[in-house]
Amino acid sequence: MLRKKIKKRRDDATRASVKREMAKPRIARSARIAELKLDAVRIPEEPSTTMSGVVDRIILSARPSQPEQANIIVDVPDKRYRDLRIENTLIDEHGDDVSLKKGAHVEVTLTSKNAGHAKHHHP
Q1: CB–CB of 104/54 below 8 Å?
Q2: What does the domain layout of the chain look like in residue ranges?
Q3: CB of 105 within 8 A of CB of 52?
Q4: The pTM is what?
């Protein structure tokens, strides 16, 4: 008898939560996305990832018109994607020109402007 009462209470609680959910206005996914874009308080951010790395070497340019490059080794499991080369002409928070030095620890952030839904591929 006690078991039956407990089950009935659970069913009532489930029914109540379903009723609360059903009482909310239905809205299409596209309308939810549009609502998020119109929200003035919300600051939309592009999808991004940040990884740490170390400046492995500085590559001097063959021509004076081209800037030198910094070769950065990032901490990723797949060794094929560890090397990253960027122009070694950076600007600090005060607007001054700076450049990376060999052995410097860096944080690399990759940002996507037009990211779609990623399809996961498991080899």
Answers
A1: yes
A2: 2-38, 48-111
A3: yes
A4: 0.54
